[in-house]
Design goal:
Elements (H helix, E strand, L loop, with lengths): L1 E6 L3 H12 L4 E7 L12 E4 L16 E5 L8 H5 L2 E5 L5 H12 L7 H10 L14 H11 L4 H8 L3 H14 L5 H10 L6
Parallel strand pairs: 1-2, 1-3, 3-4, 4-5
């Protein structure tokens, strides 16, 4: 169960997000507040907030929740935001499915970053901040990589694993990052070389 705290200045927005979280049995509402400062003590797994990345406080006390922000744009993605726990920046027009997928992904340690923004972030990151090529994949990522090796598109992977296509995209992005691969083919090749998958 992923514990979610909500922060939004508008009571209407808060009510809508509360209803959205309540609609997903994998999520549990930990609390709902007008601003980010109030959610700090909850130690929720994910903070779903109508806020800009610059409003996210720096980690304190060794605990950093994952932040899913609504109303953000690609221009707000920064290394500092990632370090502070921002895992998704969604437009105000994001669908309910996109929001829920981002929250689930963030709760499972993944980030929802547009591929173009991801490349820009990596290009601007110092070498020590990029993912180590030897970083291990999670069991779910291994499953996704195995299906990628079979040539399955995201839609088929989502159907076979009974997850959403958005979640598949998050897994694929994480796999590419961890394996330091630029394409799906390169990721599969590296996975095969390291014995992560067999075909």
């Amino acid at each position: 169960m992923i514990r979610v705290a909500i922060a939004a200045g508008s009571p209407v927005t808060r009510a809508g997000l509360e209803s959205l979280v309540a609609s997903n049995p994998a999520l549990k509402l930990a609390g709902s507040f007008a601003d980010l400062s109030a959610v700090d003590a909850l130690r929720a797994d994910v903070v779903l907030a109508a806020a800009a990345s610059g409003d996210v406080p720096a980690p304190a006390g060794g605990f950093t929740p994952a932040f899913v922000l609504l109303g953000g744009t690609a221009a707000h993605w920064t290394q500092e935001a990632l370090r502070n726990g921002v895992r998704a920046l969604l437009p105000e027009t994001a669908s309910a499915g996109e929001i829920l997928s981002a929250v689930e992904a963030a709760g499972n340690g993944l980030a929802a970053v547009d591929p173009a923004d991801f490349e820009r972030l990596l290009a601007n990151a110092p070498v020590h901040e990029t993912a180590a090529e030897g970083e291990s994949l999670t069991p779910r990522e291994i499953e996704v990589l195995r299906l990628m090796a079979e040539g399955a598109p995201n839609k088929t992977i989502a159907w076979k694993l009974e997850i959403s296509e958005h979640t598949v995209k998050f897994h694929v992005a994480s796999i590419l990052n961890k394996l330091n691969a630029g394409t799906r083919t390169e990721a599969v090749t590296k996975g095969l070389r390291r014995g992560m998958i067999l075909i």
